[in-house]
UniProtKB/TrEMBL annotation:
<protein>
    <submittedName>
        <fullName>Replication initiation factor domain-containing protein</fullName>
    </submittedName>
</protein>
<dbReference type="InterPro" id="IPR003491">
    <property type="entry name" value="REP-like_C"/>
</dbReference>
<keyword id="KW-0396">Initiation factor</keyword>
<keyword id="KW-0648">Protein biosynthesis</keyword>
<feature type="domain" description="Replication initiation protein-like C-terminal">
    <location>
        <begin position="123"/>
        <end position="266"/>
    </location>
</feature>
<dbReference type="GO" id="GO:0003743">
    <property type="term" value="F:translation initiation factor activity"/>
</dbReference>
<dbReference type="Pfam" id="PF02486">
    <property type="entry name" value="Rep_trans"/>
</dbReference>
């Protein structure tokens, strides 16, 4: 079967500061309207639905899409200094991009992130980067076993220091490992490698079901960047002079944090 690889932004959250120092409990910040305009939310997704609650300290939220494929815009009238947070969940981002394409509207993440970081003085608060490797013959279970046996190890791509097994966790069932985690979810950088084929085949409603059915093997490498690292990545993206370099930049960012090598041959 043909080998296929793809890199994408799976999920992203962005924050824009609110200029007003105080807000009324029914007041919507001007920045919310500005965000709607930048992302063309109403043209692409229709009118949002006001939510009865928000989270992470925010008091108000608007939802675009559905519960299973949503985008949230959140703010706090009690604490305007928290800014306006726009959260693209994985399925919500796909819905947004699909509907934009159907309406012949371009979604340029380099341009959008640049506007948030440069024009609005905001930042990226979280960005998840997904790399799909299809029909490459990779097995998550085999990788996990070779890590345990000391045949493979993860190293930091910048310092070349080994990442100890104590920072690596695995989960699976029926005696087979399906997922490898590197680092803690609470850290600024977190890696997940998992059997995407098995996950996708577990539900026919999965957006990847048909693809997975027609593949021999399919693993996903998912890097989750938050807090200071997400801020840096957002600023770096905004400063890119060539939008075509966005995904090669993101791939490079992953390898700055994690490289898998064979101990006996000292190669990737």
């Amino acid at each position: 079967m043909e080998k296929i690889n793809n890199i994408s932004i799976d999920q992203i959250s962005l924050m824009v500061p609110i200029k007003a120092t105080t807000l009324g409990n029914k007041q919507i910040p001007d920045e919310v309207q500005a965000i709607k305009h930048v992302f063309k939310f109403n043209q692409i997704l229709g009118k949002p639905e006001k939510q009865n609650h928000a989270f992470n300290g925010y008091t108000d939220a608007l939802r675009y899409g559905t519960d299973s494929a949503k985008i949230l815009i959140m703010w706090s009238w009690k604490q305007p200094w928290m800014g306006v947070s726009t959260v693209f969940y994985g399925q919500g981002k796909k819905l947004y991009e699909s509907l934009a394409k159907m309406n012949d509207m371009k979604v340029d993440w380099h341009e959008l992130i640049g506007k948030i970081c440069l024009k609005f003085k905001g930042h990226v608060s979280r960005i998840d980067v997904a790399v799909d490797l299809i029909n490459y013959g990779f097995s998550v279970d085999a990788i996990a076993n070779k890590l345990k046996q000391g045949k493979y190890q993860f190293i930091n791509g910048v310092t070349k220091r080994a990442i100890g097994l104590e920072k690596i966790k695995t989960i699976g069932d029926s005696g087979e490992i399906d997922t490898i985690y590197v680092n803690s979810r609470q850290s600024d950088s977190f890696l997940r490698i998992y059997n995407k084929r098995k996950e996708s085949l577990s539900s026919k409603s999965s957006g990847y079901y048909l693809m997975a059915k027609n593949t021999e093997n399919f693993i996903r490498i998912e890097a989750e960047f938050k807090h200071r690292e997400a801020h840096r990545i957002g600023n770096n993206i905004a400063e890119l002079t060539d939008a075509r370099k966005l995904y090669s930049f993101l791939a490079n960012r992953i390898t700055q944090h994690w490289i898998l090598i064979e101990n006996d041959k000292e190669k990737k």
